[in-house]
Amino acid sequence: MTGKIVAGKMTTDRMATGRMIAAALFAAIALSPLAYAQELQVGSNAYVDMYFADWHASKAQTTGPLTEYTVFTKGDPVKPTTKGALLRYVDSYVFATLAPGASSPSTTLSGKQRVYYFASGTGTISAGGDSVPVSINIAVLVPANLAFTIKNTGTTPLGAYVITEPTPSGFQPGTKLVVKDEKSTPISTAAQEWSRIVRPLFTSSDGLATISSIETVTLDPLTITRPFIGTLPNTEELWMELSGKSIAFIGPYLRRQTTGMAYEHPPDNLAPTSNVNYSEDSQVKFLLVATDGSR
What pTM, to 2 d.p., does this model score? Predict the structure, then answer.
C-alpha cells in the first residue's frame, strides 16, 4: 500500500492542519501562568466575548444616503459590561456606507479628527480645494476644523471603516487631507514581529492627535503573529479583520474571526493575544489601531 494515493486524503489533511494549529495554541497558552491569571480574573469563557465586535451584527443607523454600523463604543476596557463597549481613547469606531451616486453633507470636525479606511466602492473626498479619488485600500486622515465632503462615484456602496479621535487642548491640526495608498506603503516588519507584514499608514508625524499609530497587518498562509503581552497599563489595541478568516486567541480562549469582526487586546495585560492564519492558500489582513496612552 506504500505510495498509494487515497481519494480525499489531501483535502482531509488540509482541513486537519487548521485544527492542529488551534489545538497546539490552546495547549501552549492554557498552560501559561498568564493564561491562568486571566482565567481567574475574567471568570468565564463568555466574558472574553465582551472584547469582540462585528459590525454585521450592529443595527444600521441611516441618515440620508449615509448608513453607519457600530463596531466599538465607549466603555470600561478592563471590566466591560456590554459587548464591544470598551473604547478609552478613540471616540468612535464604525463601518459606514454611502449610497451610489450620493454625496455626504459638508462636515467640519471640531475638537476631533477622523480616519477613513476604504474597504469597497469608488468615490472622491474633497476638502480645502483638493479632491482625491478613494477606493479599496486607500486611507484618509481628515484634520479638525477642515470642511470636507465624500462622494460615491460608483454603482455600488462606498464602504469605509471610520475611526474618530479627540484632539487634546493645544493640539495644532493640519490644514490638508492626508492620503495614503496602503498598497504603495513600504513594509516595515521587524524581526521581532514574527510573521507580521506591516504597512504603516498614520502616526503622530502624519497628524494623529491621540492615536499612536494606524497600520495594516497581513499574515501569509499558515502563519501566526507573535503573542502580544502588553507592558503599558493604558494601551488600546483594536484589531479589525479586513479580509480572510483567522483564529484569534485571548489567553486560553479561541475565537474564529472573519471579515468585519474586531477585538481589543485586554489592557490589563494578564493574557497574551495573537492571530493565526490557518488557511493554506490565502492571506489574512487586519487594520490595527493602537494607542499607547502616552499623549
Answer: 0.86
